[in-house]
């Protein structure tokens, strides 16, 4: 058993580069491919795209996404669906004295299997909370 | 029991099944009849949901007399927990690669 499940994964790192430069790396397809994954991303709200990872056992490597928020040099968000689960990735860029504080937040565990589950988001979130307690008891 | 994360996520995507699993985790072993009472769901429906949970390795059944008793197998949740640790490793690695790229990019 590894660490307990949490609802949100947050990774923050200060980088000695201006927000404008980091924004390019987050939003230009050719640059995204360099550090993240092969993609057909476009910085346009509503644009549906795919990230493609190397297929592995039980997973074809496809991540289905849709652009949700585009606030140039400040905030970028897309949905992230794979393996029957959906989550949301939000990038936030804050200018600092030395460069940029870059924050990545991936949250949610909801199912992406159809609209009938969308209304059950609350239940799903609650379940994840309950799982944390179940897992805590196992350790 | 090792289960593909896909089957696990699908089995837990249904709120009725989550409720059944939570109840078994909380209250211990139960019969189908006990699980049906006050659930607002018919006994055949409860049996069907339990079948899906069993397939995903989340519950275990044993026969005692004329009734089947079900119990939760919370260890089957480990792929769900691994999902978070997988993404944690994934993003830390990608942040490293992003920093490398930024160094190579023109200002």
Describe this structure in words.
The complex is a heterodimer of chains A (139) and B (107). Chain A is of the alpha+beta class. Chain A has one domain (6-136): Alpha-D-Glucose-1,6-Bisphosphate, Chain A, domain 4 (2-Layer Sandwich), CATH 3.30.530.20. Chain A is built from 4 helices and 7 strands; from the N terminus they run βααββββββαα. In chain A, strands 1-7-6-5-4-3-2 form a 7-stranded antiparallel beta sheet. In chain A, a hairpin with an 8-residue loop joins strand 2 (38-39) and strand 3. In chain A, helix 1 (19-27) crosses helix 2 (29-35). The model of chain A is unreliable at 1-6, 110-126 and 134-139 (pLDDT under 50). Chain B is α+β, with helices and mostly antiparallel strands. Helices cover 62% and strands 13% of the residues of chain B. Chain B is built from 5 helices and 3 strands, in the order ααβααββα. In chain B, strands 1-3-2 form a 3-stranded antiparallel beta sheet. The longest helix of chain B has 27 residues, at 78-104. The model of chain B has no long low-confidence stretch (mean pLDDT 84). The A-B interface holds A 1-6, 9, 11, 13, 15, 17-18, 21-22, 24-25, 31, 34-36, 58, 83-85, 102, 104, 106, 109, 111, 113, 117, 120, 123-124, 127, 130-131, 134-135, 137-138 and B 4-6, 9-10, 12-15, 18, 22, 25, 74-75, 77-78, 80-85, 87-88, 91-92, 94-95, 97-102, 105, 107.
């Amino acid at each position: 058993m590894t660490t307990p499940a949490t609802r949100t994964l947050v990774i923050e790192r200060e980088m000695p580069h201006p927000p404008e430069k980091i924004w390019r790396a987050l939003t230009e397809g050719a640059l995204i491919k360099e550090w993240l994954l092969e993609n057909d991303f476009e910085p346009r709200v509503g644009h549906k795209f795919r990230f493609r990872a190397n297929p592995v056992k039980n997973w074809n490597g496809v991540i289905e996404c849709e652009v949700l928020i585009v606030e140039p040099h400040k905030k970028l968000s897309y949905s992230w669906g794979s393996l029957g689960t959906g989550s949301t990735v939000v990038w936030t860029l804050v200018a600092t004295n030395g460069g940029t504080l870059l924050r990545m937040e991936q949250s949610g565990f909801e199912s992406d299997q159809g609209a009938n589950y969308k209304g059950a988001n609350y239940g799903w979130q609650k379940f994840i909370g309950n799982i944390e307690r179940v897992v805590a008891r196992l350790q | 029991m090792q289960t593909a994360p896909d089957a696990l996520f699908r089995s837990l995507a249904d709120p009725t099944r989550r409720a059944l699993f939570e109840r078994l985790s909380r209250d211990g072993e139960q019969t189908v009849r006990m699980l049906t009472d006050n659930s607002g769901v018919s006994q055949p429906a409860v049996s069907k949901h339990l079948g899906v949970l069993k397939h995903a390795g989340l519950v275990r059944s044993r026969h005692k007399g004329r009734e089947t008793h079900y119990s939760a197998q919370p260890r089957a949740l480990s792929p769900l927990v691994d999902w978070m640790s997988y993404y944690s490793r994934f993003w830390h690695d990608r942040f490293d690669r992003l920093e490398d790229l930024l160094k190579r990019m023109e200002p």
